[in-house]
Amino acid sequence: MRNQNFTTLLRSLCKEEQPSIQQIVSLILKNWRISHSVDELTRSAIRSVVRRSCESAKLSRKTEVISIDLLRTLAATYDAMFTQTQPFARSVPMYMPLAILWDIAQPIEQWLLRILKKKVRISNLLDTSSNADRYVASVRRIIDQHSAASHEFYDELLPAKCSVEGLAFYLRQESTLDPYFDDLLAILQVGAPLEAKSEIGQNYFDEIGCGKPTQAHSYLFAQCAEALSRRVGRVHDLLPESLVCGNLSVCLALHRQYYPIGVGYFGATEDLAPRRFRAFLHAWQRCNLPSAASAYQQLHAELDIDHADGWWRNVAYESCRRSEAFRRCVELGILLRLESSTLYLDAVSTAISPFLIESGDVT
User: Fold this and answer.
1) Which residue in 168, 279, 282 sits closest to 225, CA to CA?
2) Residue 19 and which of 6, 131, 176, 202 are 20 to 30 A apart at CA?
3) What spatial distance separates the first Cα and last Cα of the chain, rounded to whole Å?
C-alpha cells in the first residue's frame, strides 16, 4: 500500500460513525513499513477516536462492544511492543510504529486505571511501625481477608470439578499474563533500589530457567498450554476480564511512574500464586494428565512462596518505611490486583460452567 492511500484509509476509519480502534491498530501493524509516514493531522484524528471511545466505555460483563474493543486494542498494542524483534527482525526496526501505538495505548491505559481505582479504597493498613515481620503480616491480612484469596473457583470449581476442556479454557485465560511475566520483571528492575533490584533479579533469573532456555517458565507454560490445546482440539477465546488483568499488569510494569503501584500489584500476584497453582495441580492429577506437562505449575507452587516473602521484605518494606506516599501506592497496587483478580475469577467461574464435570469424570 502506498503512503497516501494508507493515510487516507486511516482517516476514513476515524470518520466512521462507530470507528473500531481494533481495525485501526490492525491496519497500522499490517502496514508497519510505511506507518512512520502518517502525518500529525491523522495521528490527532486517531487520538481523538480513542479518547471518545474511552469516555463512553464502561467496564462490566454487560459492557458495550466498544469496551471490549478497547481491551483487545490495548492487548494488541502490547503484543506488538513485546514481539517487535521477532516478526520485524529482518527489516529496519526504527520503522516499527511505536509512536502511533503509544497514541492509542496511553488513553486506554488511563481509562482502565481510572475505572479500577474507583473500585478500591486505600485504608492505610500497611504497618511499617517496627519491623519487616509486622509489615509482611499486615500485607497478608489485606490479602487473606479479600475474596480473591479464597474464591470459589480455586477452592472448589478448579480442583474438584474442572474437566480437561475446562483446564484448557482456564489456561487460555491465564495466557494474558504468564507468558509476559519474565519481561515484566526485567522492566521493573530498571531504576529500582539495589536491594529491590537484587530480589526482582533473582525472581527474574528463576523465570528464565536459571539460564536454561528449555526451563524458562514462559516456555514451560507454552508447552502446557499446547498439550491441552492438542487434547481438546481448539483454542478458546479470551474473556474481557482476562484482558483486564493482562493489560493492567503490562501497564504497571511499563511506566516508571507506576513503579510503586507495581510493587504492590506484583507482590500480591506472587502471594496469591502458590495456592492457585496447587488448585490447578490437583485438577491436573485428578484428570490423569502427564505430570511432566505441568512442570510450570509445579515450579511456581514451590518457588512463589519464597518469591512473595522476599518481595515484601526486600522490594516493598524499606521503601514503604521511608515514604508514606510509596506506602499508599503499594497498598493501591495490592488492592488493584485483588479487585481485578476478583473480576476475573467471577467471570471465569461463570464462563467455565459448561466444562465442569461430576466427581469421577474427567472428559
Assistant:
1) 168
2) 176
3) 49
